[in-house]
Batch of 2 targets.
Target 1
Amino acid sequence: MEGLTRSEVAKQCGVNIESLRYYEKRKLIDPPPRTRAGYRMYSQEDAVKIRFIKNARNLGFTLNEINDLMKLRVDRKKSCDSVLVKARKKREEVDQKIRDLKSMRKTLDQLIGKCEKSVLTNDCPILSSFESAKPGKKL
Amino acid sequence: MEGLTRSEVAKQCGVNIESLRYYEKRKLIDPPPRTRAGYRMYSQEDAVKIRFIKNARNLGFTLNEINDLMKLRVDRKKSCDSVLVKARKKREEVDQKIRDLKSMRKTLDQLIGKCEKSVLTNDCPILSSFESAKPGKKL
DNA sequence: GTTGACCCTGTAAATAGTACAGGGTTTATA
DNA sequence: TATAAACCCTGTACTATTTACAGGGTCAAC
């Protein structure tokens, strides 16, 4: 029986073997046919779908969002607008995450700088900062 | 009995009420004393600790890492070096996340651009991109 | 005295997987 | 041909970090 085994498709698509079972459970992919021994045999189309999932995950889409995208894929002609809306929303989220991380990085940077300067004292400015900062404020 | 209730400390520290129970379970904070009715009563020291956790979480430390940091806090004099090492490592991780997100953003941007230009065609370039990209490659 | 706001517990959900036990199959090699 | 390695199967439980919910108790105010 031709087709790809679980590990083959996992390798080809850059996902973990167990994730395939998980995607099947979450109904992102159809249950593939089995050999007499019960081994899953994936088609090349399955692999395309799985790469689709993987790529969208890499772009920060959740599995639920990917499910939506795949449903849209069925009716391609009407889908572009919907996809565009989702993509723009996702871009906004990514932007926000970048802003958050940059603020994090800046803070860490300042703390590390302070810490490096305070080698001679016995107090750790990083730990002090963690303690004193009030919730609302960014450190 | 003086002290802070769950919701008070949650408000003061900017965390969810339920998280306090979780932190207790995960042994990041000691079980606080209770009133006769069994209500948790947090001290101001508890609040400091909880703010510490919250702030460190905001900087991307996991609860396990925060536990380590809090153990270091006990022996402040010897701790600064260890904390510095952890902080530098965390900064590296944050940097990597920023790089990843920027690459994501760029890709999304390109796809959105393409999609906007192809209003007249019936094909959605975003979906196409997801399909054709090979795993290793960034889209 | 009763309503509403708070507290308690244990449990289950959500995110997206990973890991492991206990078994079957297939392939390669000695 | 035997057996060992490398794969596959299932179900279940675990990771991390909350959040939610059911079913009940308590407290303050009106």
Target 2
Amino acid sequence: MDGRRAGGGGGGRALVVRALYTISALMSDMTLGASHQTLRDEVTAELRRRILSGELGQGERLVEDRLAAALGVSRNPVRESIRILSTEGFVQVVPRIGATVAVLSVEEAEELFDVRIAVEGLAARLAARKRSPAAADRLRRVLEQAREAVEAGRLEQVADYNTDFHLAVAEAAGNSYLTLMMKPMLQRAQWVFNRTAAARKGDSWSEHLSLCEAVAAGDEDEAQARAVAHVAAARRSFLAETGRAR
Amino acid sequence: MDGRRAGGGGGGRALVVRALYTISALMSDMTLGASHQTLRDEVTAELRRRILSGELGQGERLVEDRLAAALGVSRNPVRESIRILSTEGFVQVVPRIGATVAVLSVEEAEELFDVRIAVEGLAARLAARKRSPAAADRLRRVLEQAREAVEAGRLEQVADYNTDFHLAVAEAAGNSYLTLMMKPMLQRAQWVFNRTAAARKGDSWSEHLSLCEAVAAGDEDEAQARAVAHVAAARRSFLAETGRAR
DNA sequence: ATGTGAGGTCTTGTATACAGTCTCCTAAAC
DNA sequence: GTTTAGGAGACTGTATACAAGACCTCACAT
């Protein structure tokens, strides 16, 4: 078309190789925190971590220059990260004005539980329907890690393992778009969790265990019911802590 | 902290002004296709449009240089757009290799219906619960536009109005994260719609109307049931067209 | 003929540079 | 005293430049 493709010009085999890379990239991204290959990925993860941990407070301005300097990179990776975090709802971007950490009102936090009940209920049902032994094993492994973290009193990690468990359920559902959608949703849930539900950090474990059993047993109705009950319990706890119990 | 904030350094009033801008930005983005203020927004919208329309085929490579040249911009806005579309699931990015238009297999397209049933069912229920007259009016207006488009035979626009209707339901639910989540989901649904369900382009209108009525009446159960039935009907139609009917 | 390595081209990732815009502060005019 | 123009500073948006990696081609060895 435009004469640029003069030389070698992407042949057919490139696509095969690319597909392989795609698979490995997905695997690494799903199983672990991902072995970051680019600065942008690291910056995104770091900014997200700082937002979730509260290191970057709600409403705080995100000035590209300063973040770039603080992280030792140029503005470009920072900009792309901010755009990504914006689509995930962690950052509010206003054209030509700037970006700020999103403000999560109590009402919005509460609204999130409605979405989670619908989506996580579906994920649990689909996971039970699949009834994959490998997925069940993974759920148990994550639960074990969470239990150890609770016993060792490493409370910061408990939140991470909680999210990991929910993410594992999402992936066990075997629905790629559901997984894509749930990742940011669960991180948002962790954001809420980090700010409020300190008291509940032990409780959720037994609920996770019972959900895990229902999934492993392939009982769709029970799995969905337990997932829904689990999120509903978290909501009650949240409402109680924020003084808006009904 | 770091001595940079020497000069004026964002005072207190800036936040007020910024809040106003935020509101107007949200409004324009929600009500219309948004009066794009930056090249990046335009590029994102254009690329998304080309993907949804099939102009950019599934699996097609997205070479930053070429897209930038084709759109008459530099690589930067294109890169940011690609990252955004990646989080929405329209583009598959592999570090250091490149980006391609996502490949939506028949199985993945089918899986999307499961998610839609759960999410759109919730949206309809919440919208009915809100029972906002303004939202109901908006639903009727979109329906009217869709009807006119059907009668005038402008089939390309029918798909857009369909999506508009579903988006209006999402916004009527008054749950900000649900809206954020549903926007890309509905666009993905339109992607599927554009490729297959040509035959159903008239049918959906009556189903939309009945959903609209249930929402306006504030009947939560009925609204959810009709939304679920609507998506389920679309799935049946999809399965029939792809020859995978059960 | 098949497998293997070096060179070249293309493309991405990152950094830097420039232009436009927004905000704030100051100062003059009414 | 209040309001309104003007200018300086800061930050975003966009473009350009440079570095590094990946893929293809071709030659060479087995």
